[in-house]
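Hi,

I'm pasting everything inline rather than attaching a file, because the server keeps stripping attachments. The sequence lines come first, and each chain or strand is labelled.
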Amino acid sequence: MTTDITVDELVDARDLMCPMPVLATAKAMRRLEPGQVLKVLATDKGSLSDIPAWVDDTGNELLATDTDNGVLAFYIRKSPDR
Amino acid sequence: MTTEAPISPASLTEQDIRRIVREEVTQAFVKDPGARRAAIIASKGTLDWAYPPLILATAAAAAGMQTSVFFTFYGLNIIHRDFEKRLKVDPVGNPAMPMPIPMPDVLTGMPGMVSLASKMMRSRFAKHHVATISTLLDSADELGVRLIGCQMTIDVFGYSQDDFRDGVEFGGAAAFMSEARRAHATLFI
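And the predicted assembly:
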């Protein structure tokens, strides 16, 4: 369950459109320590493919994806070797 | 000191070999510097066409790619200091442009229509929370995207280097091709 995931930082990218949710995610991720978890909220449906693609490209880990009332939530763990 | 047992080819199954090849190919892509570079040409100077190169360049840079955008011909409008005034959209000859009511070119070609259509596009984009060109340019700067103005078209169009935003570099076709040959992702927009 996503409620069991400890979140270290939250990015609220609701209402933002492509490419801003990805840019906000990349910016926030720089502040995290390896192993920490970032939660990203987004309403841009393109994020459903954009965020997983970004996570894959950057070698981080997508722990879970959730949706609540049209709001998407992504839980991303920062790769330990970066 | 430990030594690995030598792999005897006879003990490898076809599956083992397929797995090893797959892992090696994945590794090669990870190491391949070309996979980490993007080179984009922005050749169009209208409000609608200013978006794709900036969206793709910032997305590439956010994914850790070293990204360059080469602005040539009308694309120079995007990095001009007066880009807010210069970037417009013209409905003439663009039947794909969404209009409140269908309009023939004889109407969309009337005086004032370019300014009206540009205003409409700006407000529609704002309503949908699309980033402005200004925000995307600032993001590009922040992400270290190299913005390169084409010196030849700058001279031909009568611009000077001071007409362009801070941080813009200047170069020619060879400078772009030198970037492009090192990048797997190359786009002409």
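The mean pLDDT of chain B is 90.

If the labels don't parse on your end, tell me and I'll reformat.
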